[in-house]
Design brief:
The chain is mainly α. It has a single domain (24-262), classed as Up-down Bundle (Four Helix Bundle (Hemerythrin (Met), subunit A)), CATH 1.20.120. The chain has 8 helices and 4 strands. It has helices at 37-58, 62-85, 91-117, 123-145, 160-177, 183-200, 220-235, 237-286; strands at 20-25, 28-33, 154-156, 205-207. The protein has a two-stranded antiparallel sheet. A two-stranded antiparallel ribbon has the order 3-4. The chain is globular and about 60 Å long. The N and C termini lie far apart (94 Å). Its main location: membrane. Residues 273-287 have a biased composition (Basic and acidic residues). It is found in: Endomembrane system.
Length: 287
């Protein structure tokens, strides 16, 4: 038997082989052993935050659960950018990020909302939670297979971190003000949860803000606006963050309706413009 055909043997007590994969470095394909530390460490932090959010939500501490989801979203936004800036992108990191997102923005929000408001709904409650979680899984799977084939300026469907914020920040805010869970609140929460899930798998386009380049310069007023926004969010984080999630979630359907209406008007006005141009041409010829 040839040496390269033999299975690698592990000398340790726990048989774990070293990870190997081919990555692109400097335009060349090279084989690496091991995984990149910094971006995967940020992904691991997001995964831990999502897991802690589940524990806090099931324990009834929805304030800590909301903060944990927020931290997971921040870390999830950083790991990809850090990987691109340091040229440490890998297939392992992409798959690890998707699995982390499924826990933090799929499983965690559904269980948090279920623990907060769905007890009076019985089977309808866990059905709403399962619909949201399934939509999150479908959203992440579709995102993975569409990499490199869609316009990078837009996301197709609501991003899972924003959907998680839309669902999780409602218990977060309700816990802050001591909102009583009535049947009406439970049903409205179930509708919101299902609606957030359906937005994730919709074809509505959402701005990715990837055209923003942090290396370049910006007008002075843009920086002043960022400072003011940071102060406003710091004063009322629960209310402001939920409001920002709502506005962003609505932006997709609003943009879709606007584009559809604009195209309809263009189609309706097209024949009129064409007929006018033909009539003016015939008038010129007759004269």
């Amino acid at each position: 038997m040839k040496e390269e055909d033999q299975e690698p043997q592990s000398d340790g007590i726990l048989p774990i082989d070293e990870h190997e994969e081919i990555v692109s470095e400097g335009g060349k394909k090279v084989r690496i052993r091991g995984i990149y530390l910094l971006p995967n460490l940020l992904t691991l932090g997001a995964l831990f935050s999502g897991f802690y959010a589940v524990i806090a939500g099931m324990s009834g501490n929805f304030d800590e659960a909301g903060w944990a989801i927020l931290i997971a979203a921040v870390l999830d936004g950083l790991d990809g950018r850090i990987a691109r800036l340091t040229n440490t992108q890998s297939a392992f990191g992409a798959q690890f990020d998707s699995l982390s997102d499924m826990v933090s923005f799929g499983v965690a929000p559904s269980l948090i909302m279920f623990s907060w408001a769905f007890a009076p709904l019985g089977r309808l409650g866990w059905a709403a939670s399962f619909i949201y979680m399934s939509c999150a899984a479908l959203r992440l799977a579709r995102f993975n297979v569409q990499l490199g084939t869609v316009d990078k300026r837009f996301f197709v469907g609501l991003q899972s971190p924003l959907a998680a914020g839309l669902v999780t920040f409602v218990p977060w805010l309700g816990y802050k003000y001591g909102l009583e869970i009535t049947p009406l609140v439970a049903y409205l929460s179930a509708i919101l949860t299902v609606f957030a899930g359906l937005l994730m798998i919709s074809n509505y386009k959402y701005s990715s803000f990837k055209e923003l380049h942090f290396k370049g310069t910006v007008p002075y007023m843009v920086f002043v606006f960022a400072v003011v926004l940071l102060v406003v969010v710091a004063q009322n984080p629960h209310e402001m963050l939920l409001s920002m999630c709502i506005v962003y979630a609505i932006s997709g359907p609003a943009m879709g309706i606007y584009e559809k209406q604009f195209k309809k008007q263009a189609i309706d006005t097209g024949p009129e413009v064409e007929s006018k141009s033909k009539s003016s041409k015939s008038n010129r010829e007759s004269s």
